[in-house]
Amino acid sequence: MHREVIDLKAAERRQEFERICTENAEVQQELAGIRKKLGAAATRNKILESELHNMRDKLRIVLDKTSSDDRLIDMLREELWRVSPQSLGHPPLAGSVSATPREASHH
User: Fold this and answer.
1) How far is CA 88 from CA 32, 69, 82, 106, in A?
2) What is the pLDDT of residues 64-98, one digit of tens each?
3) pTM, two decimal places
4) Interior CA angle at 63 toward 72 and 105, to 5°?
5) Cα–Cα distances in angstroms (integers) from residue 34 to residues 17, 27, 69, 94, in the given order
6) pLDDT average, residue stretch 17-45
7) Is the pLDDT of residue 56 over 50?
């Protein structure tokens, strides 16, 4: 009778051990999938950071070019005003791109 109880307990432990091993294998597979997704997300993050850096550099170049263009336009208007002040009607405003008299009258 004691032998039957011992055999029954041993069988229950074997079943529990097999269930735990199966569950462990499933969790290990899930962990591997999560690690793979994490690696892919980290790679995408690096790519996006690189693209962001490139876009910021390009934006900085455009802003510098815009500022430079504004200064050149102001210089050209000043030169035009010096050559023919009547064509503009007034001296250009220092440090800003000013509208021509025709553009100003439409506002």
Assistant:
1) 73, 20, 10, 15
2) 999 999 999 999 999 888 888 666 566 555 555 54
3) 0.53
4) 55
5) 25, 10, 51, 61
6) 98
7) yes
